[in-house]
Amino acid sequence: MDFHLGEELAAVRDLARDIFTDQATTDRIREVEASPTGVDEHLWAELAKAGLVDIALPEDRGGAGLGLAGLCVLLEEQGRAVAPVPLWSAGVAALALAEHGVLAEGRTALALEEFAPAEPDAPTCTATLENGSWLLSGTKAVVPSPRGAAAVLVSATSVDGPGLFLVEADGLRWELAETTARGLSAHLHLDRAGARPIGGAEVFRRTLQRATVALSAVQTGVMKGALALAAGYLGERHQFGRPLATFQAVQHQLADCYIDVEAVDVTLWQAITALADDAPDADRAVLVAKWWADQAGLDVVHRTQHVHGGIGVDIDYPAHRYFLWGKEIAGTFGGAAAALADLGAHLAAAEVTS
């Protein structure tokens, strides 16, 4: 199967890379991390002006019609730059809303996670229909970048099973929390909050799959950015009169990283293609991509920080930022072990029914 980017997606990649390279400098990222929102609003505006924020949406909804593939190309470039903008969550939420005829004003936050032992695919947040109105109660954990969002797309369970509901952001109770990657998230406490139903179990399942794949795309970029940073550093740094990159032990470390990056790249695009084609093996492809992004992603950011030596833990140097992003993504929607367990259960169920 050929996963090379077509002309249109390659143009998206090149445009996004130019913007992130120009805007997401180390000094700028450090400044944004200390800001009240943790979001680079100027970069967000530049991406919007270039037509990239809504690139996944259908053309009749103001987008470029490039779907999940276009969003993932953009997200990979974001990961390379570790740029602090809420692209994956806002993009996935916008796709879900657009498919059901909802055009939300402003950015929509995405609330799919809860505290353990709740699983992402079985939300304990409840949705109750009373007198013709839907009311949500429960707590959603670590909602990404909620400040500045006009609405929140929330997963909740009703008597009919899990689904998605849209809640206006004004008046909600938030508990701010800093994430591993220094982003500003918040726990959302809902107490009979009025909501609009967006879709049932199938819509929710597809949105969770897209969110999982979107995060895998960010992780792919993080891995590539970390590897490029390490290779550049080792090529310039000398010890015993020669570049560190010429030492065999270091070469083996980076070779392992390269193999992991290639594997994550392939499994990511298998999942994107399977979802786009509504393929029978889409569930399996998403779980495989998630396992590789979680396990290999964490391995790569560990190795690349390690080969930097002492400067790898210096927060004035960008290597630590790739490590933090990789670690956070690897634990979102459950880690590698959870993905592997889910994959095993899926394969076992498929074997029983075959």
UniProtKB/TrEMBL annotation:
Top-level taxon of the source organism: Bacteria
Upper lineage: Bacteria, Bacillati, Actinomycetota, Actinomycetes, Pseudonocardiales
Transmembrane segments: none
Record keywords: FAD, Flavoprotein, Oxidoreductase
Gene3D superfamilies found in the cross-reference section: Acyl-CoA dehydrogenase/oxidase, N-terminal domain, Butyryl-CoA Dehydrogenase, subunit A, domain 2, Butyryl-CoA Dehydrogenase, subunit A, domain 3
Ranges of residues in domain Acyl-CoA dehydrogenase/oxidase N-terminal: 7-101
Pfam family, one: Acyl-CoA_dh_N
Organism expressing this protein natively: Saccharopolyspora kobensis
Protein name: Acyl-CoA dehydrogenase
Domain Acyl-CoA dehydrogenase/oxidase C-terminal residue range list: 200-325
GO MF, any single term: flavin adenine dinucleotide binding
Cofactor(s) named in the record: FAD
CDD domains: ACAD
InterPro entries xref list: Acyl-CoA_Oxase/DH_mid-dom_sf, AcylCo_DH-like_C, AcylCo_DH/oxidase_C, AcylCoA_DH/ox_N, AcylCoA_DH/ox_N_sf, AcylCoA_DH/oxidase_NM_dom_sf
Family: Belongs to the acyl-CoA dehydrogenase family.
